[in-house]
Amino acid sequence: MVANADDQRSPEDGAGRPETMAATYGQHFYEPPSGSAQVLLIRHGQSEPYRPGQPFPLVDGHGDPKLTELGHYQAELVGERLRGEPIEAIYVSSLTRTQQTAAPLAERLGLAPTVEPDLREVFLGDWEGGLMREMMAREHPAALALRNSGEWGDIPGAETNQQLTERTVGAVRAIAGRHTGGGLVAAFCHGGVIAAVVGYALDIGATGLTGARHTSISHLVIEQPADDPAHWTVRLFNDGAHAGTLTGDHQPPG
Question: How many domains does the chain have?
């Protein structure tokens, strides 16, 4: 709001000169534009480790490990962190770890999560079921290629960066289109998804922001029409203050 110049003056003093009053211009908390959606992208908690020869069960071809004890604790922490926010809907991917992570918040708010299948993690092709973790640790040539190029498609049979971005941005765009009243929407998803979606908003590619912390929160404000990345604002990325210190995770009590 710009003050009217007339509001900054007092009546003329005896010398005929206006006496200027001191004006104040305060700072205000950010308000999203009218008709925009606010989407929180929340990574799942820590999932079970992969053991060679014991692949994770698959859901629609994607590995589906459950949360560890620490992962469940992280889910409680993020649920407590967000319980006082004006969240009007909760979305989860089709994979168990996001659903388990969302459960504490859903219970606190009395909301039933909606499954949005296209929020699922990047498809890892021949390395699905947990095998990617082993291949990365062993520095398989394709793993080294991925590290160097940032291209998921360097994994045999995997989804490409473009495919991942189109799928996940489409999912978030659809969610945003359902919630244009300015309230918050919590979307529990995956590290690769967060990197692709936030990377789209910042125009830095699908792997420019890797390493999202477990249960970290990234905050997007999406104006309509949502098919223009210029209408996407990143308010927050990788906020995990509830999950631990800058150098480590809080551990379950006991």
Answer: 1
